[in-house]
Design goal:
With 49 residues, this protein is of the alpha+beta class. It has one domain. It contains one helix and three strands; from the N terminus they run βββα. Strands 1-2-3 form a three-stranded antiparallel beta sheet, with helices on one face. A hairpin with a 5-residue loop joins β1 and β2. The radius of gyration is 10 Å and the shape is elongated. The two termini are 17 Å apart.
């Protein structure tokens, strides 16, 4: 399954990332790599529930 994610710089530093097609599926990270790893985990948890 492929999902589009939106990655945005956060005002506080780091990045916020979310999945528009999965309402409420959002995460963040100190850098792009962390943010993308965190959203992968968030997607897995979202789909399990």
């Amino acid at each position: 399954m492929k999902l589009n994610v939106i990655l945005e710089p956060s005002d506080e530093g780091g990045y916020t990332v979310y999945v528009p097609s999965l309402r409420g599926c959002i995460s963040e990270g100190d850098n792009i790599e962390d943010a993308l790893n965190n959203i992968k985990e968030a997607i897995e948890l979202y789909l399990e529930s």
